[in-house]
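Late entry, evening session. Most of the bench is empty. Finally got around to the prediction I had been postponing all week. Sequence below, unchanged from the version circulated by S.P.
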Amino acid sequence: MTRKMLASVLYNVNDIRVEEVNIPEISENDILIRVKYCGICPSDLKYYTGNRKPKAWPTIRGHEFSGEIAEIGNAVQTFKIGDRVVGHGRIPCGKCYFCIREGPNVNYCLNLRTSGIHSGGGTGAFAEYTKVSESCTYVIPNNVSFEEAAFTEPLSCCLNTVMRSEIVIGDTVAIIGDGPNGLLITQLAKIFGAGKTIIIGHHDDRLETAKKVGVDLTINSHKKDPIKTVKALTNGWGADSVMLATGHPSAIKQGMGMVRKEGLINFFASTYPPIKIPIDPNFLHGPSIKLVGSRDFQPLHFVKSLNLMQNKSINLKNLITHVLPLDKMAEGFKAIIGRKSLKVMIDCSKPTN
């Protein structure tokens, strides 16, 4: 008899419903996780609003999750039922060029598989249960809550960004975008040695939260010219590194205007729908500007992120503004669209109406 669970199923743009679906079947190397919390990622929002399309409708999204092990496959050796864990759905082959090259980047594995059976990628964790491979599972430290642990995946993505941004001790780092990821990147930049962090956004409540989590300076771009302000704060030369935590064209323009000569701009956020930006090659050639992209995470970033949480190096609780049950996910999306939230967490273990 097929076992059932509740899940938030996205049938089409703006059409999400809680209903019974099959509990994922696990193979010998898989782990079935009873989901506790799953955060709404900007990519989840893009599917809800129609800016991105899934491989097929309906779809179950969700990949920023924490939970406890409900079942393990026969070949699983390093975990047991009841373990508190996080995980991801990316299963690289370990053999192709991108997996074995020096400084491997398994994001680009030529034979990458995903564990999500409903989502077309990821884990499909807006549900009571999700499955991941043993190789993609990590134990949550005892002093880290399930709510905090659900930040592991986005924190890992932000960590990848900061590690690719060549921060030198004492640098001035500007982060454009005052959403949850922008505030995570800001905290990580300080850990990596930034002498001054500046976050640019246009939501006063978010900028106040940025101060609570340790940012040095905030700029409301609707009240002050961010380029002039950053240059004034840096003796006229600009920020050493600029990280774009929003894909809005205005943010890209601001970043190009405030970076110093020989500085670096990291394109962290994706841009949907795709756009084209005119760039004078002399902007790169003369001042020797570096443009860097940053996508997702490597497995090591999961380990490092959990270590940061265990050491209480990152303030996560201040970023959570909403905790909602599965059947209130539409409210969570609307709160994000209306800029009424920072991080929205879905409590997948809370009974629905």
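Two things to note before I forget:
The first helix runs from residue 42 to 49.
The CA atoms of residues 11 and 58 lie 4 Å apart.
Will write this up properly tomorrow.
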